[in-house]
Amino acid sequence: MAYSEKVIDHYENPRNVGSFDKGDETVGTGMVGAPACGDVMKLQIKVNPGTGVIEDARFKTYGCGSAIASSSLVTEWVKGKTLDEAAALKNSAIAEELALPPVKIHCSILAEDAIKAAVNDYKAKHGATAEAVA
Ligand code: FES
């Protein structure tokens, strides 16, 4: 199976590889695994607490080329988006952008799950803070 040029580009030059401090109040962390293949993806967002806009993102993926490309692409896409916009991101858009074949669709689903988990983690942190204050 041949990878598309976009997958190879992200695989060879992954954007935003790394991590933020998990305990940072402005960071949301999503860690998900694909049961089918055992690949694991960690995606983190850094949010401006005043505006609710995602200002930066990082990922670390232990997985196939399509999973690495999907997470790299998502870290680029979510910058400048609100939490709700990021959570609404669909794996079909990722799969289309990267021209993923049907057997690699689950790799893009992993990226969708990871960004949703990161947004939920951020919201949970801040929901808890708001309740503690009130
Ligand atoms: Fe499992 Fe790509 S083969 S994430």
From TrEMBL:
Extract the Pfam families matched here: NifU_N
List each copy of the NIF system FeS cluster assembly NifU N-terminal domain by range: 2-127
A Gene Ontology molecular-function term? iron-sulfur cluster binding
| InterPro entries xref list | ISCU, NIF_FeS_clus_asmbl_NifU_N
Q: Which GO terms describe its biological process?
A: iron-sulfur cluster assembly
* A GO CC term attached to the entry: cytoplasm
Segment forming the signal sequence = none
Cross-referenced Gene3D superfamilies, in alphabetical order? 3.90.1010.10
Q: What does this protein do?
A: A scaffold on which IscS assembles Fe-S clusters. It is likely that Fe-S cluster coordination is flexible as the role of this complex is to build and then hand off Fe-S clusters.
Give the family per the record: Belongs to the NifU family.
| Protein name, as recorded | Iron-sulfur cluster assembly scaffold protein IscU
* Originating species: Melaminivora suipulveris
From the broadest rank down, the organism's phylogenetic lineage runs: Bacteria, Pseudomonadati, Pseudomonadota, Betaproteobacteria, Burkholderiales
